[in-house]
Amino acid sequence: MNEDGRFEVKYKQNKYNIYEFLNNHPGGINYVKPYEEKDVTKQMVEHQHSKAAYYLLREYKDGGRHKEKDQQEDLEYLVDWDKPMLSQVASLGTKYKEWVISPVDRNLRLFGNPVLENLTITPWYVVPSVWVPIITYLIVVGSRKYVQITKDSAPIMPSVLYVGLGIVLWTLVEYSLHRWVFHMEPSGHSKVMIYLHFAIHGLHHKVPFDSRRLVFPPFPAAIIAFLLYKIISLMFHDSTRILVMAGGLTGYVIYDMIHFYLHHGTPNENSYFYHLKRYHNQHHFAHHDNGFGISSMFWDKVFGTAIYLRKLNLGIKW
């Protein structure tokens, strides 16, 4: 790998500098390194690279993707990347679904208004900074109310159990939101649904390497938290609903931190996160309609949407 920021490979006689992609490659650096300055056409076919992989490769072509001859196959000509994207996506119509699951390696601007734009950009550390104090407050208040109602002088174990229940319930909420809300299929004729889909999740599939958009901004997260609390209030009462809510929020924070780590972390082989990272990469680049679990694969197995990873002869190093 050259120190000048170049790592070239050849594909169908064209050169591609994939240096910026090396740390994000689902197959890891160690699978790619042997092919520096070599032709990878045969290897991409043999390793069954997805349509998304071929599309993403165009990002790194020497001279830029705008010099592609087959412009009709390149959906980026349908939008202007120098302008806010949210105002453009509805015009894609029936092409929207294909475009949004065809990844590019860029940062995306959602709004033209700088205030609105900044509200959509969230560094990973904002999530625990906002929610951990709230979780702590709910646990303290919930435990005190539990003591007042039950006269139990040792509320630690019940509090732990209810918080733990909330964490478990979150894993189901996480799966349900990701599958049935984030991955809803908007009609190409419904501009409102396209806007909504793109704003809440579609943009993440379009620009999966944009680190500013990997965790949920506090405002939409607060809306989901409010709805979750209303549901919990129907199932639990008094102190228990506060403790279960604290657990649900804890599960959410864990989920968001795991999601960020799966995109930018380098887990060791055979670790839990190593398998989760492989799993999530498959969801992004090959199996968009499966693999909805982020922090756990459990509900995918329950609902029949699990992705089965093939065994590798060599462990992946990111």
UniProtKB/TrEMBL annotation:
EC identifiers of the protein: 1.-.-.-
Named cofactor requirement(s): Zn(2+); Fe cation
UniProt GO BP: fatty acid biosynthetic process
Note on cofactor: Binds 2 Zn(2+) ions per subunit that likely form a catalytic dimetal center.
UniProt-annotated binding residues for Zn(2+): H178, H183, H201, H204, H205, H259, H263, H280, H283, H284
Subcellular location: Endoplasmic reticulum membrane
Span of domain Cytochrome b5 heme-binding: 1-66
Pathway in which this enzyme or protein is active: Lipid metabolism; Sphingolipid metabolism
Membrane-traversing stretches: 124-142, 154-173, 215-236, 243-262
Membrane topology: Multi-pass membrane protein
Binding site residues for heme: H25, H49
Family matches, as SUPFAM superfamilies: Cytochrome b5-like heme/steroid binding domain
Extent of the signal sequence: none
Matches recorded under PANTHER family: FATTY ACID 2-HYDROXYLASE, FATTY ACID HYDROXYLASE
Principal localisation: endoplasmic reticulum
UniProtKB keywords: Endoplasmic reticulum, Fatty acid biosynthesis, Fatty acid metabolism, Heme, Iron, Lipid biosynthesis, Lipid metabolism, Membrane, Metal-binding, Oxidoreductase, Transmembrane, Transmembrane helix, Zinc
UniProt source species: Exocentrus adspersus
Name the record gives this protein: Fatty acid 2-hydroxylase
Family that this chain belongs to: Belongs to the sterol desaturase family. SCS7 subfamily.
Single annotated GO MF: fatty acid 2-hydroxylase activity
Domain of life: Eukaryota
Function: Plays an essential role in the synthesis of galactosphingolipids of the myelin sheath. Responsible for the synthesis of sphingolipids and glycosphingolipids involved in the formation of epidermal lamellar bodies critical for skin permeability barrier.
